[in-house]
Design a protein that fits this description.
The protein is mostly beta strands. It is 6% helix and 38% strand. Among the domains are: 127 residues, Carboxypeptidase-like, regulatory domain (Immunoglobulin-like, Sandwich); 134 residues, no CATH class.
């Protein structure tokens, strides 16, 4: 498929234009656009009075071919996570449209989210309705790619000049079970032939003999890899290394190991075993940072309180890792009797300590609950700038931002409302390890998960003013009353854009 130049696609999307081709004569085409940018909005649900659901694709397009609805006025209830359609006189959030074969219409929806939803990255039918309407889509493969229907929790690394992408589990079209050994793909960086990140990501998957995305980590059971780092091996060759979790189920972990990418096989080999629950190893979404003249890999989860020197021998040796923690040097967290480090005045000592894992947010909460430390001594104490309420974070990423001249974190809240694991927050600090004190909600979901979000610094634009992040949109871990997965979108990655010049992201006002 011929691709438009990137600049043409940017203009196309930002203006909301949909005039490349007339829709087929039997279709009625609706485009839902953002009231702030006039860009098509993905994941907007239009529901008829008799409960027929239509979902906008990544260009904000819905096509109708229902003969029972043609040539009459049809009311659509219009809803979307973090967006709101105006109410009519009876309180219904929707509008009536004159549905006619060959007709087109644009309607605006109000964005409540600070971040703007851009497009779905993975799965089938990303631009399904756009293609049905005879319009141009920005992707090389806009409706089907490697037979992938769903993918969970993205990992990524720049390796040998290309972006390498990996996902935890992958759904397929031919059977309810896909594969569970880390799918993989590559794409070009935007300044080396790749799409502008505001437009999309052209993924080129590693596939099997049947054309389906194949596992990148050989083996049995669940294989989940994270903590991908690129560094030189003892022979001076650039290598891609990660930690791999082996699980029988979420409740039954089997072990951990380090893995290394084999370029000849385009798959991972075992590198070194790890203890089953070894906390001092690669994890999350690492970044490099030089502190006091020493270069480290930091491993946020979501707080960047674990690091190791950025050399081969250190990365593969757990005892060389450092935690930013209040534990006594060499200690481990215990449900009872955790050894803490205090100075002669009784003040808790938070510092980088070798061979000492950092506390998790939940472990810190447990120590506060037991009285071992008080709330004023806590390191993880993020609060909502609007309400002053505590925000407990589950997963995310940290990166230096040149525009803000701060370390910025994008992370999902644990135990949030209205979604248990779908409220996404922005916060910032002068230091990678924090503290992160005030935050602002930038994305919300209604009883739906959006977990493991990650900011992609390699996509930053305008000196970091514009940033991009994605996460996994799924009913998994949603509230119990949500048993209605979103067609095509569920269990897939969705990309967002955030403008860091937005005045709502100023976090200088003390919480009440």
């Amino acid at each position: 498929m011929t691709r438009l130049p990137a600049i043409a696609w940017i203009a196309f999307i930002l203006t909301g234009a949909r005039a490349f081709a007339a829709p087929p004569g039997n279709l009625f085409v609706i485009t839902v656009i953002d009231d702030q940018t006039n860009r098509g909005v993905p994941l907007v649900e239009l529901t008829t009075v008799n409960h027929v659901r239509h979902m906008t694709d990544s260009a904000g397009v819905v096509t109708l071919d229902d003969p029972g609805l043609m040539n009459q006025r049809v009311f659509f209830t219009i809803t979307s996570h973090g967006y709101e359609f105006s109410k009519d006189g009876f309180g219904f959030h929707g509008t009536a449209l004159d549905v006619k074969p060959g007709g087109t219409i644009k309607i605006k929806i109000k964005r409540l989210n600070i971040a703007q939803r851009l497009y779905r990255v993975t799965g089938e039918g990303i631009y399904n309705d756009t293609v049905l309407a005879g319009l141009k889509a920005p992707l090389d493969l806009p409706v089907s790619n490697a037979q992938v229907l769903g993918q969970d929790s993205v990992q990524r690394a720049i390796y040998r000049g290309q972006l390498h992408w990996f996902w935890g589990d992958t759904n397929r079209a031919s059977y309810p079970l896909g594969h569970f050994g880390m799918a993989g793909a590559v794409s070009d960086l935007p300044d080396h032939g790749g799409l502008d990140p505001s437009v999309g990501v052209n993924l080129r998957y590693f596939v099997d003999d049947h054309g389906f995305s194949r596992p990148m980590v050989p083996g049995k059971n669940l294989r989940w890899a994270d903590g991908f780092v690129v560094l030189k091996d003892p022979a001076g060759q650039e290598r891609l290394l990660a930690k791999c979790e082996l699980l029988k189920s979420l409740a039954e972990p089997l072990g951990r190991k380090l893995i290394v990418y084999n370029d000849d096989k385009a798959a991972f080999d075992d590198l070194a075993p790890l203890a089953r629950d070894e906390p001092l190893c690669p994890q999350g979404h690492p970044f490099r940072h030089t502190d006091d003249g020493v270069e480290y890999f930091y491993f946020p989860a979501p707080y960047a309180t674990l690091r190791v020197k950025a050399d081969w021998e250190s990365v593969i040796t757990p005892a060389t890792y450092e935690g930013f923690t209040c534990l006594a040097p060499g200690a481990r967290y215990k449900k009872e009797g955790t050894q803490l480090e205090r100075d002669n005045a009784g003040k808790l000592i938070w510092a980088w300590k070798k061979n000492t894992p950092p506390l998790t947010d939940n472990q810190q909460a447990s120590l506060i609950g037991s009285g071992a430390i008080n709330g004023n001594e806590a390191w993880y104490r993020l609060k909502d700038i609007e309400t002053g309420n505590e925000v407990r974070l589950h997963a995310g990423s940290v990166a230096w931002n040149a525009f803000r001249k701060k370390w910025v974190m994008i992370a999902v809240e644990h135990f949030g409302k209205p979604s248990y694991l779908g409220e996404v927050w922005y916060t910032e600090s002068d230091h990678p390890q924090g503290p992160y004190l005030l935050g602002r909600r930038i994305v919300t979901h209604d009883r739906y998960s959006f977990y493991n979000p990650v900011h992609h610094p390699f996509f930053d634009q305008e000196n970091g003013r514009i940033i991009y992040f994605e996460g996994t949109y799924t009913t998994t871990f949603s509230r119990k009353d949500n048993d209605n997965p979103t067609p095509r979108y569920d269990y897939n990655q969705i990309m967002y854009q955030l403008d860091l010049s937005d005045p709502r992201l100023e976090l200088k006002t003390p919480a009440p």
